[in-house]
Amino acid sequence: MNDDIQTVLYSEATIQAACERLGKQLTQVYRGKNPLVICVLKGAVPFMADLIKQMDIYMDIDFIDVSSYHGGTQSTGAIELVKDVDQDVSGREILLVDDIVDTGRTLAYLKDLFQDRGASSVRVCMLMDKPEARQMAEMQADYVGFNVPNEFLVGYGLDYQGKYRNLPYVGILKPEIYQG
To answer: What CATH number does the domain located at 13-69+77-151 have?
Structure first.
């Protein structure tokens, strides 16, 4: 797998430092509030696991799975709810945790979904933000680990056709891997 990576953007140590920084920030925001922290499957699992270890607060966790890539390298724009959360979000402070925001469509879908269900607040924590790919400019994450270039990234949860999620770093996938 490592041979398929053009450049490593963020090492494991750099990612862990971002998780620590964000975890401390979120501890201050949510102290005494018991938020429902919702992990967007599958890509955000490594990030959420490391992030919540850095948060010194009471919390509940849940998972949601949505898809807009359907195995490709670009969002199709059609968002499919694959797995819903198990808990009632009404009146809850929601913290959505995801790996990357690019077009902003999935983020908009999820924020609307939980606001429509009566959440008292919906905030978003992303490991990475890809502003150059944004199609919905108003969709911004509240907490971001890194701003990233408009490249096809894999590792630390991000995948290409289900592969590379287990890399401990984030890197740029060589174009020849996904172009043919």
So the answer is: 3.40.50.2020
